[in-house]
Amino acid sequence: MPVASEAEVLLDEEQTDATLKDLARQLLEREPDPAELLLVGIRRRGVELAERLATEVEAQGGVAIPTGSLDITLYRDDFGQIGPKPVIGSTELPVEITGLHVVIVDDVLHTGRTTRAALNELSDFGRPRKIELCTLVDRGGRELPIQPDYLGCRFEVAPGEEIAVSVPSIDGELSVRRVPVERKK
Amino acid sequence: MTANTTNGGADGLGLGKDLTGLQQLTCEQIEGILDTAEPFKEISERRIKKVPVLRGKTIVNLFLEPSTRTRISFEFAEKRLSADTVNIASSGSSVEKGESLVDTARNLEAMRIDMVVIRHGSSGAAQFLADRIPSNVINAGDGQHEHPTQALLDLLTIRDRLGSIAGRRVCIVGDVRHSRVARSDIWGLMRCGAEVAVCGPKTLIPMGIEELGVTVLSRVEEAIEWAEVLYVLRLQLERMDAGFVPSLREYNRFFGVSRERLERAPGDIVVLHPGPMNRGVEIDSDVADGPWSLILPQVTNGVAVRMAVLYLLAGGSPERAESAKEARE
Amino acid sequence: MSRPVLITGGRLLDPSQELDGPGALLIRNGRIEACGRDIVGPDDAEVVDVDGLVVAPGFIDVHVHFREPGDEHKETIGSGARSAAAGGFTTVWTMPNTDPPIDDPAAVGFVRGAGERAGGARVYPVGAASRGLEGEKMTEVGELVAAGAVAVSDDGNPIWNAGLLRRLLEYTQTFDIPVLQHAEDTGLSCGGVMNEGKVATALGLRGAPNAAESCMVARDCYIAELTGGHLHVCHVSTREAVEQVRRAKECGAHVTAEVTPHHLALTEDAVHGYRTEAKMNPPLRTEEDRQSLLDALVDGTIDVIATDHAPHHYEEKEREFDDAPFGVVGLETALGVAMLELVESGRLSLGGVVDRLSCAPARIMGLDVGTLRPGARGDIVVFDPAERWTVDASTFMSGSRNTPFVGKELVGRVRATWVAGERRYELPREASPFREGAPPYVGQGSV
User: Were both Cys, which of A48, A135, B167, B185 would link to A167 (CB 3.0–4.6 Å)?
Assistant: First the structure.
């Protein structure tokens, strides 16, 4: 839990929830047939965001849509530098993805490398009709030509700072904060 | 280059450079490898059974003793992690022309490889190699010493079925004396808190095994009565010629694991076997193909466990990679 | 003849005459002329002041392997003899298991001749007990003795045929030589590469049980009792074999026994890590066995220390444990290991160690060395009993470096060795090992 004096709350629970509702609305606007949607969250915090989005889409559009999860650890491009991590999450895609409209859901978009890894991993599972990217926060600093199709909000980040998204299943609350790099959860 | 540094390391488990045996590992490290293996199981179920994590790594499978099963399992694991692999067998290689193991190793190093998976007929050969080259070394069976990835897949299979290893009663039946699998399983099971017994004719039980902390049972009926897991070892046919058992027929009669014997088990019991099986000698077909058998899940888990070990060792720590580079120069 | 040598300022230590005190020693014409206080040398004597160091009769090793002929890349008779001198040994008995084996008078003559030219310790060949070391037909024992052999043995192999051993123990009595037996029942050792037990089981190495040695020693002792011949049991390694030797001695059999420094100092635990420097035959045993060997050496059940110096080339040991040859070098570390295990631990006096290394071998084998009495051969060792030094195999005079004691700190270091009054070894130092102002050493070179 970040210390209040060091962490600047950018979106509180209500504001974060409202941002998710707005993202769900954008999704329904752009996909006329929600039955073909699959929301895939990137581990770890993207997974709960994808589930929350799916709940919102169902509430707003009346259609239940499936969600999945991706663990991109084995697709990272920095294995040689950071080495292995002992616990890898599972990748769970509940349906065959070929022909679907897959939306990758992540909490923060930074360099774009995670998204690149997710795209590669998805392509090993099939050939979706379309893949799009939905992120809660864009903090800038891209190192690859990747942009979000659905964006919650954009925050500037100074050197030595990070954006920390908290979700209830992992952190016990729903919020977006700006934190010093060392104190990032 | 030091083998098996026990703390730190970028793999998070502190496995160090090599995996030469389970004797020197802790329970946390063993359980950590099994946890890492879990997500790798799913990769083999995919349509495209391949992830790019070891892309560009070169792995040599140095099999100086015949092996089909272990070599194929390693090769699948390596390929599913996108590593480049080369297989070397003793026949037809420079080893057959009398090249020493240390020269073979140095020649491989000179070709800039990243890992060696070694199977060798002499106990200690994997450690010997690990101490002399900066590449990662994985022991795929050295003499009668250890076969750590086999034991890890056994542990994973037991954990999958029984939910835990700690507190389980496991009896290893058969040629314990000549078995590296038995030794690795004994270390792995004991580290993870299982109770371990061995059972077989006394000619096939090595001296001093009790001092390692295992119980010796002299009849297979006792083993079946006591154990929740029966680990049946292969009886190598040459043991009969060497006079350790008088005949295979007699071995089967007194130590073979049969349906009749298992049906008298007081509780649930599962049967594992490292393969390849001698049906009708140490294990009857009714058992191998019956409800007790976890033999095929073992084989499936073998690939996942080996992927996990390759993945954990391949990363290494950046400092180690640097010092290895210096050692080469 | 060389100049007379007067060694002064030393502590004369000779258990054969219960001598331990300051004094001087005069050697002339290759023999000890005088020994004691207030000795004045002739005017032409070379005077060496050893400044309080121990002056003792040179050590005798009745069990070494110099690999010539056949394996000169491991050791030659020359390098072996110089290695012996560096370890304080003035007499060594070389085992016949060379290639070809020393099983005829010509081969015995070759070893003797090479030994005389070596400029180190005196080299006495042990002849083969059976032709070709094959354990079947007795060699021409009398011819071997006539050519210079001092004993017979099939060492490396046991004399497994009890009938042959009986005939040898009978026949050798004519020539008054011992039969040196490598006691091993190969059916029980069964290809073992280390001691059978917990460590072998954990390492997955084939083990040889204690019984492989003790059964053979028991059998051999009964044959010695039957025949009255002199049976010398090589490299005793087990407590059970000690018991057999003790029993045979009590029964009056002519049985003697040796133990190696490595069996006194190490146990099977030294094999951990598949260290081939700890691979030898008989293997290192357990702590219980080691303690029993130390006790037996102290109480005289085991008569002597012998090194079983077995040189092997680096590359031969640098390989898989199963494939590496058996054996370790021992001549240059013997004194230091023995003092560490026996004197430092308070089990044996310094004189006791000199006895087991020098007087006792001379006594049991009937040699006119191993004493400082006037008239004996001028074979002398000078050593510093207090010096602690760390083993660096690269400084060995031996052709090989295969020692398990690399990096180990030992106590007691040989400073110089004289054979027949000629200085055959002197510890290289930046400064002279002896007190400044002493007359300069006049080099002798090889003879």
Answer: A48
The answer to whether the Cβ–Cβ distance between B100 and C201 falls below 8 Å is no
CB atoms within 10 A of CB A172: 9
Contact yes or no for C201 and B206 at CB 8 A: yes
Flag if B315 and A83 touch (Cβ within 8 Å).
Answer: yes
**Residue B301, CA atoms < 13 Å, CB-side half-sphere:** 26
Using the beta-carbon criterion (under 8 Å), do B207 and C209 form an inter-chain contact? yes
Contacts of C205 in chain B (CB under 8 A): 123-124, 143-145
From chain B, the residues in CB contact with C196 under 8 A are 207-208
Spacing of C-alpha C84 from chain mean position: 9
Note whether B142 contacts C: Cβ–Cβ < 8 A.
Answer: yes
Closest CA to C131 of C155, C101, C86, C105: C101
Strand ranges, E, within chain A: 8-11, 37-42, 67-70, 101-109, 130-138, 150-154, 161-166, 175-180
Q: Give yes or no: residues C162 and C230 share one domain.
A: yes
Q: Please name every residue paired with B229 in a beta bridge, in sequence order, or none if there are none.
A: B170, B270
The distance of A92 to chain B (nearest Cα, Å) reads 9
- Domain termination site, one of C323, C340, C365: C365
**Cβ(C22)–Cβ(C11) under 8 Å?**
yes
C104 and C131 share one domain:
yes
B291 CB contacts (<8 Å, ≥6 apart)? none
If one counts the domains in chain C, the total is: 2
- Which of B123, B125, B117 shows the shortest CA–CA distance to B101? B125
Check residue C201 and give left, alpha or beta (phi > 0: left; psi -120 to 50: alpha).
alpha
B239 inside 8 A of chain C by CB: no
Name chain A's partners: 3 or more CB pairs within 8 A.
B
DSSP one-letter code for B85: E
How many other CB atoms are found less than 10 A from the CB of residue A14? 10
Q: Is there a contact between C202 and B124 if contact means CB atoms under 8 Å apart?
A: no
- Residue C444 in domain: no
Q: Residue C319: give its domain's CATH number.
A: 3.20.20.140
Mean pLDDT of C286-306: 98
Q: What is the mean pLDDT of residues C167-192?
A: 97
Q: Are strands A130-138 and C122-128 parallel, antiparallel or unpaired?
A: unpaired
Beta-carbon separation of B51 and A83 below 8 A? no
| Lookup: tokens for B235 | 């009886």
DSSP H or E stretch at residue C154: none
User: Which among C197, C209, C322 is the nearest to B123, CB-wise?
Assistant: C322
Query: Are C211 and C248 found together in one domain?
Result: yes
Q: Kindly tell me if the per-residue pLDDT of C447 is higher than 60.
A: no
Q: Do B306 and B156 meet the contact criterion of CB atoms below 8 Å apart?
A: no
Q: What sections of B227-264 are H helices per DSSP?
A: 238-241, 248-255, 259-263
Q: List the chains bordering chain C where 3 or more Cβ pairs fall under 8 Å.
A: B
Closest approach of chain A CAs to the CA of B183, in angstroms?
25
Residues near A30 by beta carbon (within 8 Å), at least 6 away in sequence = A149, A150
Q: Domain residues for C262?
A: 58-365
Place of tokens 């559009």: A61
Rounded to whole angstroms, the Cα distance separating B223 from B198 reads 8
In single-letter form, the type of residue at position C101 comes to: P
* Nearest CB neighbour to C201, from listed B101, B122, B209: B209
Strands lying side by side in the sheet with C151-153: C59-64, C89-94, C122-128, C151-153, C179-181, C231-233, C255-259, C304-305
Cα nearest neighbour of A121 on chain B: B51
Q: How far apart are CA A52 and CA A22, in angstroms?
A: 12
The one-digit pLDDT tens for each residue of chain A (185 residues) are: 444 446 889 999 999 999 999 999 999 998 878 888 999 999 989 999 999 999 999 999 888 999 999 999 899 888 777 777 767 888 889 989 999 999 999 999 999 999 999 999 999 999 999 999 999 999 999 999 999 999 999 999 998 899 999 999 999 999 999 999 864 44
